[in-house]
Design goal:
CATH superfamily: Holliday junction resolvase RusA
CATH topology: 60s Ribosomal Protein L30, Chain: A
Structural class: alpha+beta
Strand order of the largest sheet: 1-6-4-5
Order of helices and strands: EEEHEHEE
CATH architecture: 2-Layer Sandwich
Low-confidence stretches: none
Largest sheet: 4 strands, mixed
Mean pLDDT: 93
Number of strands: 6
Strand content: 35-45%
Shape: globular
Radius of gyration: 16 Å
Length: 131
């Protein structure tokens, strides 16, 4: 089984790493700032349109191309500035889990991720079931 799609959007640059902590009655309490909540809701809103009819049950390879608005950069030029790819992927995979792509993102056994400056911004995703 393979799922492949492109979500035309300005990808969020807020990442899972931006969770905050405060101390309440001497105990740490973690929370998501408004920007992170908005990024999560944006991704879920797009991803739920593309979820498979049946969630993946076996190991998968996840290929993701993050395409950010190019500005002064050439179309297709690699983006070598923040956010880091691993931080982008964490939020994306959490949202994909919530949208029913799989029960647990631990099924992602192979991962390719790239980030570019692009004329048409968005996120290209391919999920392939491993043999």
């Amino acid at each position: 089984m393979t799922t492949e799609f492109f979500m035309p959007m300005v990808p969020p640059t807020c990442t899972h790493q931006e969770k905050k902590v405060s101390v309440v009655k001497g105990k740490p309490v973690f929370y998501e700032p408004a920007e992170l909540k908005a990024a999560r809701h944006k991704l879920i809103g797009y991803l739920c349109k593309y979820g498979p009819a049946v969630p993946y049950q076996r190991g998968v390879r996840l290929l993701v191309k993050w395409c950010f608005p190019r500005g002064d950069h050439r179309d297709g030029e690699y983006r070598i500035t923040k956010p880091d790819t691993d931080n982008l992927q964490k939020l994306l995979k959490d949202c994909m889990t919530l949208c029913g792509f799989w029960k647990d993102d631990a099924l992602v056994a192979s991962e390719y991720v790239e980030k570019f400056w692009a004329e048409i911004p968005g996120i290209h995703i391919r999920v392939e079931e491993l043999p």
